[in-house]
Amino acid sequence: MYTQAIDLAPHGDTATTGDARERAFEAAIAQDRRIEAQDWMPEGYRKTLIRQISQHAHSEVVGMLPEGNWVTRAPSLQRKAILLAKVQDEGGHGLYLYAAAETLGVSRDELIDALLSGRAKYSSIFNYPAPSWADMGAIGWLVDGAAIMNQIPLCRCSYGPYARAMIRICKEESFHQRQGFDIMLSLSRGSAAQKAMAQEALNRWWWPVVMMFGPSDSESIHSAQTTAWGIKRISNDELRQRFIDATVPQAALLGLTIPDPDLKWNAERGHHDHGAIDWSEFRRVLAGDGPCNRERLAARRRAHENGAWVREAAMAHAARQARRELATAATPEASEA
Ligand code: FAQ
């Protein structure tokens, strides 16, 4: 179920020869044209996109959990309405991205199964807890801020359906980042206890967000190929650096301290130097042993089980409608009566 009704030629089924198809693909990449679902593409390109787009989709839906948990506890009606809209947006992003992945010939059932069985990755960042209201500020400001930094270049990704999904997603992420910053601003200009809460949230989220950009370029196994294919436009380290450079003045405006004693402006490089990243923590979280990995997967599995009746009802309705349409087509006068 759910697979998009796009009529694709079976992969590899085309009149042109293998060499010509490959040359056409390489030319499109070299000329920075978009590859579309019906175009021939190398199997590695298709698999890489399925991997990245589905991980991204899973991240959006798992990413609803830390904030969704605060919808009933938002401190005012206005904050609640904003948070509710943001969490719904993340669900919508997941849907656009699953749909983009489906254009590559994989079904949503397969993708969801990979997530729920623990085979598929999703962003490390969503395996951290959100114990205070200030975490809603820190997630919007930092996590959405990092997501935008990573996703703006993806709007120019060589695969058309992914690039187009990213354009819409980035517009929404920018509202998310601003609402998070606004929460941090209110808290940091509030009572001493509120400012302390904002600082404490920044202390917990900073390093996980810095890691969220992925392994350093020297360790990144996919970067060379995804860059050659025009999927990745800017490297993990460069995006991380851009994020840090953009965030330092924002933290100063909030009057908060970034928890990195080695963070300082390097005039020669024109960038901020930062302290060493604890990659052992990153690897632990990716291996399933972060603070909330089990909790997050259990929540997704529960949601999937609880939603089974909705899927079954939708399927039953679709089947009945199809039967009706078939009957009408067979006896057109019945529909005119
Ligand atoms: N977490 O060779 P690379 C959001 C894996 S959306 C987990 O560098 P690549 C919105 C990587 O998959 C956040 N795994 O890989 C929101 C690979 O493993 P594999 C998600 C990670 O693909 C906000 C291995 O390490 N965004 O936040 C992570 O070239 C608030 C080697 O790494 C996207 O998915 C990580 N952080 O670069 C929602 C953006 N980093 O697959 C709710 C699209 C790396 O071989 C609330 N994705 N790995 O088993 C990308 O741009 C890329 O896939 C990277 C990784 C940059 C994430």
Topology:
Layout: H1 18-30, H2 43-62, H3 64-68, H4 77-102, H5 108-116, H6 134-151, H7 160-188, H8 192-211, H9 223-228, H10 236-254, E1 264-266, E2 271-273, H11 279-286, H12 293-306, H13 308-330, H14 332-336
Helix pairs in contact: 2-4, 4-7, 6-7, 6-8, 6-10
The protein binds Phenylacetyl coenzyme A.
Residues 51-52, 55-56, 59-60, 63, 90, 121, 123-124, 139, 143-144, 147, 150, 212, 214-215, 220-223, 226, 232, 236, 286 line the site of Phenylacetyl coenzyme A.
Strand order of the largest sheet: 1-2
> Can you tell me the residue ranges where pLDDT is under 50 for at least 5 consecutive residues?
1-15
Tally of individual helices: 14
How far apart lie the N and C ends?
Answer: 34 Å
Helix/sheet category:
mainly alpha
